[in-house]
Amino acid sequence: MRPASLVWVAVLAGCYSYSPPPMLTPVPGTHVALVLSDVGRVGMAPSIGPGISRVEGVLLPSTDSAFWLQVSDVYGINGSHNSWTAETVAVRRDYVANTLERRFSRPRTYLTVVGASAAFVSFVLTRTLFGIGGSGSDNGSGGGGQNQ
Question: What is this structure's pTM?
Fold first, then answer.
């Protein structure tokens, strides 16, 4: 992955946060994070792997007994992370300790934009880009003269 694309990934990631949904059950099509209970970690191990603490993805139409999710990411209790490619998984509701919804965060976006802008300005001012900045230590004497 190119460095420029990594910067954009970081900027976009800084624009969202997870918080409890405004409704009891999120609407299908919403990007959610399902935090699994201890029983849920054990019960979901055969389908998503052992020791998974959180499952993220797009919520599909669900039933009274299970959330249906197109999984994008899973996070382990040890801090591990695995990306998925929208595989559909059923997560029993009694396995879920907490449901979180991904929302656009203005404060995080502002901080990300200000931080990225400050980094760019610092970079430009410490280099001789665009004819500005740099150290200015070259006085044009050539430095090739003889010492007497």
Answer: 0.61
